[in-house]
């Protein structure tokens, strides 16, 4: 009896301890994805107390970026040498040891920044790269790399300087209109093409909606074409690795692959605008999860019929053939052979030399084509990831996938049910034991 009473007492104590334990009280730590952390956007990571981790000053001719060394709000300071600015990896300009901040100062066109021209603004885009060096033990790392996008917006139709400019003979608007310059641009659009969308937060399996356009001002009607598009890890489309999205004078070759739905959007919204969509991808083996897309845009007279050198062709998988946005299907036949080179005579001619009527030739602008870069487009982590890495005292990390979290919930439910049954039985046993004593 004494042995049975002792065992029953131990069982009661164990049940009490189990009943007081809360298995759903997990501490997941920071839930941000630092590889797709956009400056200015609300982050799920803990912020640095009393300050922003990254601040930007968009000045007249340069941008100044200040980064707090407690970048992730964990209380651990990162190495200033692990931070660089832009695809060119420019080093920091100064280091403030008292405030634990690192400052970068660079011209708007320096360090590989990309400029996007919209009807109303000039947008300069660059990024802060955090590439952590190995710890004291080269076999382990304790932090993830990060890419933080930076943007500076400047109005196109206003003077950026604080000092007024007094032209002696003509205002800006009249001068630009008289020069008849074309402004080519690429814009990343939302799902219904109604507005631009941020360059961050994309997942593999998403779609990039890209809108190419040209501002024609007072020109005679023009038709815009996307001659080629190349994706790379920097604004330089010739860098390695790179991947051709559009090639052969307007063939969307990415849509030829079995696992993509990339295509031009038909019909055009207007002659001086062309839309296309591509499936999101990333370069294998690159931890930054970003891409730049460089496209070569050009125009022809709107009344000139499309031809093999000026076309927009998508591959129709259902019909197993190339289909143009406009024009006859034979202009796309060279997309399959990969040889869309023009004849020797037309190669020597400027495309706008074929304008009907000599009286319109004086209205043709000199710059009828341009290379335009869009990016960096940043990819987030796996959308199924519920828990992110959490640094502990020993550098341990916690990661739970969506399916794993479901299994955890089921296991917790079963455990709770078992605990409830055990508590009920034990309490009955304890009550009987007390009564017998």
From TrEMBL:
GO terms for cellular component: egg coat; plasma membrane. Proteolytically cleaved before the transmembrane segment to yield the secreted ectodomain incorporated in the zona pellucida. Residues 57-320 form the ZP domain. It is a single-pass type I membrane protein. GO terms for molecular function: acrosin binding; structural constituent of egg coat. Pfam families: Zona_pellucida (PF00100), ZP-N (PF23344). It comes from the Eukaryota. It is found in: Secreted, Extracellular space, Extracellular matrix; Zona pellucida; Cell membrane. Residues 1-20 form the signal peptide. InterPro entries: ZP-C (IPR055355), ZP-C_dom (IPR042235), ZP-N (IPR055356), ZP_chr (IPR048290), ZP_dom (IPR001507), ZP_dom_CS (IPR017977). One of its GO terms (biological process) is egg coat formation. Keywords: Cell membrane, Cleavage on pair of basic residues, Disulfide bond, Extracellular matrix, Glycoprotein, Membrane, Secreted, Signal, Transmembrane, Transmembrane helix. The chain crosses the membrane at residues 405-426. Belongs to the ZP domain family. ZPC subfamily. The ZP domain is involved in the polymerization of the ZP proteins to form the zona pellucida. Component of the zona pellucida, an extracellular matrix surrounding oocytes which mediates sperm binding, induction of the acrosome reaction and prevents post-fertilization polyspermy. The zona pellucida is composed of 3 to 4 glycoproteins, ZP1, ZP2, ZP3, and ZP4. ZP3 is essential for sperm binding and zona matrix formation. This is Zona pellucida sperm-binding protein 3. It comes from Asarcornis scutulata. The lineage of its organism: Eukaryota, Metazoa, Chordata, Craniata, Vertebrata.
């Amino acid at each position: 009896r004494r042995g049975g009473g002792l065992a029953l007492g131990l069982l009661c104590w164990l049940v009490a301890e189990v009943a007081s334990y809360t298995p759903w009280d997990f501490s997941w730590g920071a839930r941000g994805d630092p590889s797709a952390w956009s400056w200015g956007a609300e982050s799920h990571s803990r912020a640095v107390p009393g300050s922003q981790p990254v601040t930007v000053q968009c000045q007249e001719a340069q941008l100044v970026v200040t980064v707090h060394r407690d970048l992730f709000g964990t209380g651990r300071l990162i190495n200033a040498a692990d931070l660089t600015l832009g695809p060119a990896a420019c080093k920091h300009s100064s280091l403030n040891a008292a405030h634990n901040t690192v400052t970068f100062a660079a011209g708007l066109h320096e360090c590989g920044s990309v400029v996007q021209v919209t009807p109303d603004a000039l947008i300069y885009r660059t990024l802060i790269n955090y590439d952590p060096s190995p710890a004291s033990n080269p076999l382990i790392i304790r932090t993830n790399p990060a890419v933080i996008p930076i943007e500076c917006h400047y109005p196109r139709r206003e003077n950026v300087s604080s000092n007024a400019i007094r032209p002696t003979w003509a205002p800006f608007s009249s001068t630009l209109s008289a020069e008849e310059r074309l402004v080519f641009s690429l814009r990343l659009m939302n799902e219904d093409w109604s507005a631009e969308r941020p360059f961050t937060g994309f997942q593999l399996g998403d779609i990039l909606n890209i809108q190419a356009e040209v501002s024609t001002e007072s020109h005679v009607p023009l038709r815009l074409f996307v001659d080629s598009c190349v994706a790379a890890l920097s604004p330089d489309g010739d860098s390695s690795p790179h991947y051709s999205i559009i090639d052969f004078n307007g063939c969307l070759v990415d849509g030829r692959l079995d696992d993509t739905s990339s295509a031009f959007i038909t019909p055009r919204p207007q002659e001086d605008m062309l839309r296309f969509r591509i499936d999101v991808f990333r370069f294998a083996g690159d931890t930054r999860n970003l891409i730049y897309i460089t496209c070569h845009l050009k125009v022809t007279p709107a009344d000139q019929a499309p031809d093999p050198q000026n076309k927009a062709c998508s591959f129709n998988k259902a019909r197993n053939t190339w289909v143009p946005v406009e024009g006859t299907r034979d202009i796309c036949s060279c997309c399959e052979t990969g040889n869309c080179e023009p004849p020797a005579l037309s190669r020597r001619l400027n495309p706008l030399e074929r304008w009907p009527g000599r009286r319109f030739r004086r209205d043709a602008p000199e710059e009828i084509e341009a290379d335009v870069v869009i990016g960096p487009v940043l990819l987030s982590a796996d959308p199924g990831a519920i828990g992110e890495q959490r640094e502990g005292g020993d550098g341990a990390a916690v990661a739970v996938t969506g399916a794993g979290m479901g299994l955890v919930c089921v296991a917790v439910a079963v455990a709770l049910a078992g605990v409830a049954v055990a508590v009920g039985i034990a309490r009955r046993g304890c009550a009987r034991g007390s009564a017998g004593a």
